[in-house]
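Issue: copy button drops trailing tokens. Both records pasted manually instead:
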Amino acid sequence: MTPEQQAAFTIERPAPIAVTLAPPVAPIVFEARPLFLRWLCIATASTLVLAALAVGGFADGVSGGPLAVTVLIVASTAALAGFAGLLHWRADRLLGCDGAELAHLRHDAQLVFYAVALFQVLGMIGALLGYRQQTHSAALPDGQAAVHALTLGLGNGLTATLTGVVCSVIVWVMFLHLQHALDRPR
């Protein structure tokens, strides 16, 4: 066969459908998030500390108003830690640039700072509720029962105070970590 005859019998195969219909795929590039990963380590360590305190019976016997304040502090800490994580995620993307977004991020970081004082105040409110709870013990006729009620109320109040202090330290560390990254010269 001559080359002209071969060309007449040659059938060109079309390209596979997937190749012709699908656009070229860009490679997936993952951004490094070192600030967020460090926050994740802080959050994990904080969770382990709070879990160890809970398992160790830190809040056993707490009741009434101090228990409600303690639960409120721990729940607020979890929510605020999530917000701090979001700020760390945003900071990883924005640290290379200056501008309005970075100023907005600094403003949002101040909310984390304000929570430090809020948790301490909530802890003191829990202490006051515990003291209030123990004032009912003065009406008990038995001295031993009155002392037991007094120590129980004081213990409840101190549990709420200590919870506020521990949670404020956790949030304070997250705030300082973010603030240090935002203020570092680039």
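Record 2 (pasted manually too):
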Amino acid sequence: MVNASSAVRAASLALATFLFAGGFAQSVAQTPAASTHQAQIDRNGLLILIKSTLIGLDQANKTGNYSVLRDLAAPSFAMANNAARLAEIFANLRRDKIDLSGVLVLEPQLSVLPEITPQGMLHFAGFFPSAPTQINFEMLFAPIEGQWRLFGVSTNLGSSTPAPPQPPTPQAAASTPARPAAHAATKKSAPEKR
């Protein structure tokens, strides 16, 4: 799934790419779970959305042509992201020659089951387990003329094995008050299972 040189780079540096139209990512994250409801989408329909999106991204990265990915997305996504902007956003994937084509033969594991947001968007997240890295994803689709069209996508590479927690150094533990853990989007982390 990931070529050898990319796997080595991915092991030392997490790769994260976030792309959401119109700042919707923040409102999805801030929406209380009680205001969403389970999406009525069959397994095959969900697999088509996940795999076609990631393969479209993979082909855009390999060719440097993001116009098809952009044109297949929701109109607000297309207005917010021209092809040049998409090329800039996904430059790290291209530079590191990350190969996403393995998603065609792997089965995704969902960490956020498909849900309909209060804005009527289809939202879900998950990962493709593989070694030495796995592909994590989060996607958002808008209903346009009876079809789900891409509104946002987030991808990153993570470790396929859980990492043990790092104990605090004695100096840091004594001088730092306890607080909830926060993880930057660019750090590798095991996906949360629900």
